[in-house]
Design brief:
30% of the residues lie in helices and 38% in strands. The protein is built from 2 helices and 8 strands. An 8-stranded antiparallel β-sheet has the order 1-2-3-4-5-6-7-8, with helices on both faces. Residues 5-21 have low confidence and may be disordered. The longest helix has 38 residues, at 2-39. It has one domain (2-205).
Amino acid sequence: MKPRIIILLCLMACLQGAMAQNTVESIRQRYQSMKEYISTHTDQNLNDGAEFGEFYHLNVRQWLPATGGHLEDTYFYWGEVEDNEDLVYPDHYLEFVTTRYNFAARNYYEEYLYDADGNVAFIYAYNPMTAMEDGADDKEYEFRFYMNKGRLIKGIIMQKGYEQQTFKEEWQGTKLPAKYADVYSGYMASANQLKELFVNIEKRSYSY
């Protein structure tokens, strides 16, 4: 009996792993499709010859104490709800967000991909200088988090020191180590804040 249980558990683990990998691949395909789409829908190229490029562009300019000029450039890209595509003004849902901002001379960049239910499915973030633990040296980091219905299914964290030319993998897996918990929580909070901001912009500019 025990060998059968062990075999069954192994099969279940393999099945879950395969399902997660399929989900990761589908997220990557959606991500690439969105990147191709937005490459032709910018402030400089609003019409690619087939359809008008629609998005919300939020530009923030601030003067912050100690760090000086702060610029934030955020784009919100949406999809149309399939159930009411025949309407003159179909409902929108948030698909993709890019945001680029600075603090002092440090430039940050983030991307958020959402599913049709409003859950964040993928996060990419570049941080030019941070340390994962107290006393550790600051490094450049790239974070990639894949989610399924809000649950982390894969993460990849790359880093490089200031004298290094290329990023090296620091961690990859499904169970996030404790030292990355605050970073992950922070980006998840940003994903939710950006979604709320999109909803509020919709209420103001698309209240038909």
